[in-house]
């Protein structure tokens, strides 16, 4: 049984002591298997040990609003990392960051904060992708579009995360300002039935005609990876290739 009150009591001290660390999960280009980008994830580490799964504490932080502070902390750490390594990264390499829906309650504050981080760390914004979930877009369309239009001035990419996770996906597509669509694992399933193949092929066809990049996450089997490769998926993310890893391991992997 998880003591949620104990977790909440420890959050601010944990932030002060920098117990939240950035982890990276690489994404690969299907045709070559080369790492082309990575998603930044958060892990709560104390004395070298991971405390709780993010699946436990992130929903709590969404409820009490602490996720806002945590996001900005993670963004700062990521921008700092990019400042250090951007000159040695492969060309067009992307680092993607998740955005809590709470930021869209005050979108201008979010925009101003990202602009401030860009000025502070002087990073190349073309290395950045922000992932915004489909549900966030559906529930905050105007605010999300405000952020997208602002970020496009800096050539920051925007990805629609968790596409196909249960919302009106086809209706969402017609007004899409996003650069990239990231298909939810539930959309793929564990095995590909004939109907699933047909649906995916049609979705891929639509997205390609709209000029959107396609990323599929949660890929764990070679069967699904081969199908995605044949259908022209731009990037694949999942345990079949790489699990989330600490900074040191990620640096060894991409900077060798």
TrEMBL record:
InterPro entries found in the cross-reference section: Cyclic-di-GMP_PDE-like, EAL_dom, EAL_sf
Q: Residues in domain EAL?
A: 4-256
Pfam families found in the cross-reference section: EAL
Coiled-coil segments on the chain, per record: none
Q: Cross-referenced CDD domains, in alphabetical order?
A: EAL
SMART domains for the chain = EAL
Molecular-function GO terms, alphabetical? cyclic-guanylate-specific phosphodiesterase activity
User: Any idea what this protein is called?
Assistant: EAL domain-containing protein
């Amino acid at each position: 049984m998880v003591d949620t009150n104990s977790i909440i009591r420890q959050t601010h001290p944990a932030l002060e002591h920098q117990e939240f660390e950035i982890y990276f999960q690489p994404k690969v280009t299907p045709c070559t298997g080369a790492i082309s980008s990575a998603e930044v994830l958060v892990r709560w580490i104390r004395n070298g040990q991971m405390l709780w799964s993010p699946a436990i504490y992130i929903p709590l932080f969404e409820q009490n609003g602490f996720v806002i502070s945590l996001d900005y902390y993670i963004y700062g750490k990521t921008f700092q990392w990019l400042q250090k390594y951007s000159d040695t990264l492969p060309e067009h390499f992307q680092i993607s960051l998740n955005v809590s829906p709470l930021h869209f309650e005050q979108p201008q504050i979010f925009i101003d904060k990202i602009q401030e981080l860009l000025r502070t760390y002087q990073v190349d914004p073309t290395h950045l992708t922000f992932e915004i979930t489909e549900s966030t877009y559906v529930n905050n369309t105007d605010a999300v579009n405000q952020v997208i239009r602002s970020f496009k001035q800096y050539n920051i990419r925007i990805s629609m995360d968790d596409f196909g996770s249960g919302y009106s996906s086809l209706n969402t597509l017609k007004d899409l300002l996003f650069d990239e669509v990231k298909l939810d694992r539930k959309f793929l399933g564990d095995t590909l039935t004939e109907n699933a193949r047909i649906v995916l092929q049609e979705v891929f066809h639509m997205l390609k005609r709209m000029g959107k990049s396609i990323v599929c996450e949660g890929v764990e089997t070679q069967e699904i990876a081969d199908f995605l490769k044949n259908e022209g998926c731009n990037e694949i993310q999942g345990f079949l290739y790489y699990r989330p890893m600490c900074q040191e391991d990620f640096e060894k992997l991409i900077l060798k």
